[in-house]
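Handout for the seminar on molecular recognition.
Each group receives one record of this type.
Step one: identify the two inputs.
Step two: read the structure output and locate the region that could contact zinc ion.
Step three: write two sentences on what you found, then compare them with the reference statements printed after the record.
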Amino acid sequence: MLLLKFGSVDNIEAVITECYAADKLQLSAVYKSLIQSTNTVPWSKTIWDSCLYPKHSFIMWLVCHSRLLTKDRLGRMGILSSNQTHCVLCNRQEMETSNHIFFECQFSAEVWNLVMEWLKYRWWSCVWGLVLNWYSYSLKGKGPMKKLKRMCLSTAVYMIWRERNRRIFQGKRKLPAQILSDIKFSVFAKVLNDNSNVHMKYILENL
Ligand SMILES: [Zn+2]
């Protein structure tokens, strides 16, 4: 129930940490936090935005909640054995974890770096926690470039996860540059087909 309300153990810990005063836990503050009807996670605007594809938002939501069925989780559930949990994207015998795929993996990092290069990001990182934190606090506004960057993150996450599934279930593989093309196509298709996105359209046409 608490997980449903606060999203993750990390968020629950953050809420409890805020209830300390002079190194003492203030039970009244904990109670107040628990009875609040809503407690919006800082990354809600990063994953829920009308300009995003719902299927991209859903995969992002799973990643943010550490609920994506990555091989490390399947291993802990006893569905995969320890020698079946390596990442299929980089083939470096690294374990497939959520943080590895987004974007510590050499393959994913290459895709994400290409995206950041395309949109001329000034701040670069391939560490999921830092990326999400940066998005949550610096890229949550309504500006067209911020919206585009949110769109690119969720599209990159979706396309990388789709490529992982394609390799596992269909034995097909694409190069990072091809994944970037898929990301660009998806973003262009969404923005150019929506007449309300004139500013985003202008940015895309002038990149
Ligand atoms: Zn990898």
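Reference statements: The beta strands are 20-21, 24-25. Residues 144-170 form the longest helix (27 residues).
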